[in-house]
Amino acid sequence: MAVTTAPLDTKYLDQLALLDQRIVAAAKEIKVLSRLSWHTDIQKSFLAGAAQGNLKLPEPVYPSIDLAANRAELSACMAQLKDGKDSAEPLQRYLFDTAESYHTLCLLLEGIGTKALSDHSLTLYGSPTDKISSGHVNSLGAAQHFLEVSKTYKQNDALKEIDFCLSAEVMATEMRARLGEVFEEGLLRVEVDADMVSKAAAGGTRVRLRANTPFSEYDLDQLLQHEAFVHSLTAINGKRQRFQCFSLGAPRTTGAQEGLATFAEMVTGVMDIGRLERLALRVVGIDHVLNGADFVEAYRFFIDVGLTEIDSFNSAMRIFRGAPLTGGAAFTKDVVYLHGLMEVDTFFRWAMQHNKLDMTRHFFAGRMTLNDVVNLDSVFESGTLQEPGYLPPWMKRTSALASYLAFSVFTNQIAVETLGADFEFTRHDGG
Predict the structure, then answer these.
(1) What's the pLDDT tens digit per position in 227-253?
(2) Which of 4, 54, 412, 418 is deepest in the core (most CB within 10 A)?
């Protein structure tokens, strides 16, 4: 049980709150995906050429970006938090790390079209070969394992075209009806957006769905758990904190956010093998590109593993957003889904094993990394940070979560590869 800590000095908190406001203001205009998005005409032109056997590198055009003023302000905040990197006080460290990650993001955006973007992307989001929780496995190895498993099981349970029978408008209506499981009416909007590249996205005020896109009933549950009950929920809870950085989608929190969202899919039973395959393919695709594959070769990779022409283009595009299309450089954000899932799963099992499951609730009080959740525990205990006002349904039923984690923690001690010799299969063939 955590030891209750006295609230921090009022003057000190006021100083941090002013720096928090400055960081939020500086970060406000630092947009990532909208700056890196490709016009839909690029997809149409590429696929038209592909249909005629004429594959050429696309030529995306990006807006010019000058973030010098943002970088200067973030640097100034970091200077006033200069010992935050090594500070024993976790709020100061949290603000320093947040400002630093946005500063790096500015450099990434100013490096659009060059390898510099890839270098900064690796700093913020990691690479396929990064170790998971300081262990012996990495995201690439995990991805390859999941792809092997999907070969066996996906063909048996894959959704058919007829299953995708819900329009974006119907999906929006269904999602609005289900939001009442967690939120008051009107707190979170669901909108249909014709300009989106991804199927869905969420923030602190709305969930957006891509127009002219067929969805399945499976998508409904998955998007509710992932987008509304994690991404939107943590942003909403973060806005209720005194320090508004907790409501930001700072790049340093992306891995934990996507990990928590995909973990939510896993524990609620809405992640099928096809979804896991897509996460794994993104990791392998990024690895190919970092090792030299250009856009056309990446597109062919996704075609060869069975994706449609449109999905193959979109998958390759996600990797090359802002990066040179000739290979060797990538926008690596899609690594975080699989890596984050495994790190969050490990964190929850660690919390269960060390009788700290209550600490995991703090994960939903705003946008944080795994280390933040642990380091800020005393700040929550002191009352300086608020407990989450909203929780997803599966976190409210902690007895069910505890049952799942207790079982998982124990069975992880069993070496699966040695079990075959222990089983005796008896044939019942009437003989």
Answers:
(1) 999 999 999 999 999 999 999 999 999
(2) 412
**CB < 8 Å & 24+ apart, contacts of 213-217:** 213/168, 214/164, 214/165, 214/166, 214/167, 215/164, 215/166, 215/167, 215/168, 215/170, 215/171, 216/159, 216/163, 216/164, 216/165, 216/166, 217/163, 217/166
Tokens of 138: 């990495």
Length of the chain: 431
Q: Which of left, alpha, beta for 330 (phi over 0: left; psi -120 to 50: alpha)?
A: beta
Q: How confident is the model at residue 430 (pLDDT cuts 50, 70, 90)?
A: very low
- Number of DSSP helices (H) and strands (E) in the chain, helices first: 19, 3
H or E element in which residue 157 lies: helix 139-157
CB 36 within 8 A of CB 62: yes
Contacts of 133 (CB under 8 A, 6+ apart): 342, 343, 346, 347
Rounded Cα distance, 238 and 253, in Å: 13
Distance CA 302, CA 397 (A): 39
| Strands (E) located in 66-193 | 189-193
pLDDT digits 0-9 by tens, 126-163: 999 999 877 788 999 999 999 998 887 766 555 555 45
Q: How far is CA 220 from CA 168, 191, 361, in A?
A: 10, 14, 24
168's CB contacts (< 8 A; 6+ apart) are: 192, 209, 210, 211, 212, 213, 215
Q: pLDDT by residue (tens digit) across 15-30?
A: 999 999 999 999 998 9
